[in-house]
Amino acid sequence: MNKKTSQKVAFLTFRLLGLLVVGILFWILGFIVYNGIGIISWEFLTTAPKEGMTAGGILPAIVGTLCLVVGSVIFAFPLGVMSGIYMVEYAKNGWVVKLIRVMTNNLGSIPSVVFGLFGMALFVNTLGFGDSIIAGSLTLGLLVLPLIIRTTEEALKAIPSSFRTGSLALGATKLQTIRRVVLPMAFPNIITGLILSVGRISGETAPILFTVAAYFLPKLPHSIFDQVMALPYHLYVIATSGTDIEASRPIAYGTALVLIAIVLFMNTLAGMLRRYFGKKVKTN
Length: 284
Prior knowledge:
By secondary structure, the chain is mainly α. The chain contains 11 helices and 2 strands, in the order H-H-E-E-H-H-H-H-H-H-H-H-H.
């Protein structure tokens, strides 16, 4: 087999594998949409569950999920970005940096249920937050913190050092160089970490099970110290236990469809922010 033939076979294989992945994705989405679209209505999206969660809507679970996503991002994103800036721009490439990177990678590989146990021990019991939005948000924030740090590091490393040198040569301080030159150029890629974090936060069940999620709480939260329902846990409950499973199965598919729609919406919004900052960097 000559080189051209080998190349064509390789490209064909990669193309088929890519189409297979896309096909699986559309198959899953199509299955969820087909089984869940029939129950989606204004009432389903704006009312609380009732009759043992076999009727009514999922508004408290939607609001609870959004609260957890926003709270986690507010905690993890600034801390992760600042940690990444320190690792790339300030810390010397010695054993301390290597140790931090190893520990960050190890932290990112810990199962989410362990984070849930840690969050329950620290935030719920030791700090006295109880089962609350703040305890769940901080736990989920710790869960995605390694991802944001690594994404920020890679985004900053991709900026050529000549930009830093030129800025310093013009009289700017290191902080001014980072704030006005490096960070704006890297920010479109840093947003990638935010996109991945939102997707993971929205779908986690184990951490919120220990720190915030309520089995049945048909009301909206009033403070960050309130317990809430959340879509992933609500989906698990109505699909597996505690209710008439057959009667609640359409609600389970509808809940899954709403969860997917929320994740897609947030990812789209983050992608728009990424394109906006990318165009802003190019025009400047």
